[in-house]
Automatic annotation (TrEMBL):
Gene3D superfamilies: Phosphatidylinositol (PI) phosphodiesterase (3.20.20.190). One of its GO terms (biological process) is lipid metabolic process. Keywords: Lipoprotein, Signal. One of its GO terms (molecular function) is phosphoric diester hydrolase activity. This is Lipoprotein. Residues 1-28 form the signal peptide. It comes from the Bacteria.
């Protein structure tokens, strides 16, 4: 008769003790943030995309994009008009009020709509909010990085997933990202990142201004800045002063460019949060608005297997592609 080894007995006893203390077998850890892929809709704030912003959230989108103007000292949400808001946000502050008042509201009302949905759906999957600062920040008009932090903090508090949450005890976000410190406790959280706007022409672009703010106030900053340049042959952070480079850990660029990178170059982004746009343009091209659901899902999974954290397109009426998706089976 063979007896179990001392190691086997010890392991079995340890497992039994863990189960007894924890009330059952130990569960597998939640995947880290950058081991998942989330899908969402480009310009989800437009009425042509959804009648109300809450409709975009109820449709399962894990990322929504908002275009934000600041030039006139307002938080104006519009695609091309800086003078007044043109969007599907309304004044509702509870989930029961989100489809019964006038739309075309300010950015703060868009955030109120998101907060109402967030509070009505505790434990929701991570929600990513992409802000295109159409004309950049205007700190001299009270619309700078610290004011953006304030309106986000006021509405979402600890639900915000911030650079400080990533950093933990690390010196910079880059140190944390390369150490694999992206949090796994991202349910019920909101992550916001900012990109340079298409109408921005000042000498202090969005990503530079916010990266300096983040470097100087790492405990307070609510938002992740994105370096200009998308996905190419070199690290887009090289175009910035050396002290700022470690404060960029979120990247955003076209899905076609990302998919077209050599594997060794794409591997560079493996530690980072990578958002890819216009997923329908990757060859073979898909319908930009309403492809068959299985095609949208397959494209999202393919880009996820290549390393994309967020996949966006205009697939507003397509169900089930937004995930999140794990990379199991890639």
């Amino acid at each position: 008769m063979r007896f179990p080894s001392r190691i086997a007995v010890t392991a079995a006893l340890t497992a039994s003790m863990v189960a007894a203390v924890c009330g059952g077998p130990a569960r597998a850890a939640e995947p880290a943030l950058t081991d998942l892929t989330f899908g969402g809709v480009h310009n989800a704030y437009e009425r042509a995309a959804y009648p109300y912003l809450v409709d975009a959230l109820d449709a399962g989108n894990r990322m929504i994009e908002i275009d934000l103007w600041t030039f006139f000292g307002q938080w104006t949400v519009s695609h091309s008009n800086p003078f007044w808001s043109d969007n599907n946000c309304e004044r509702g502050a509870t989930v029961g009020q989100l489809r019964d008042s006038a739309r075309n509201q300010q950015f703060t009302h868009c955030l109120d709509n998101i907060r109402a949905w967030h509070e009505a759906n505790p434990g929701h999957e991570l929600l990513v909010v992409k802000l295109e600062m159409k004309d950049g920040f205007h700190d001299n008009r009270g619309r700078g990085p610290d004011e953006l932090d304030a309106v986000l903090r006021e509405r979402f508090g600890d639900a915000m997933l911030t650079p400080a949450d990533l950093m933990g005890g690390h010196a910079t976000p880059d140190d944390a990202a390369r150490a694999g410190a992206w949090p796994a406790d991202h349910r019920g959280r909101i992550l916001v990142y900012v990109i340079r706007g298409t109408a921005e022409n000042d000498s202090l672009p969005t990503e530079l201004e916010y990266a300096r703010h983040l470097r100087d106030h790492p405990a307070d900053a609510q938002v992740f800045p994105v370096p200009r340049g998308g996905y190419g042959a070199t690290d887009p952070r090289q175009g910035y002063e050396e002290s700022l480079r470690p404060w960029f850990v979120v990247f955003d660029g076209s899905a076609a460019s990302f998919a077209g990178l050599p594997a060794e170059r794409r591997a560079f982004y493996g530690d980072y949060f990578t958002a890819v746009t216009s997923a329908h343009e990757v060859a073979p091209a898909l319908d930009p608005v309403n492809p068959p659901a299985e095609q949208a899902l397959a494209r999202t999974r393919t880009l996820g297997c290549l390393g994309a954290t967020v996949v966006s397109s205009d697939w507003r009426d397509v169900p089930g592609w937004q995930g999140p998706h794990t990379r199991t089976g890639c």
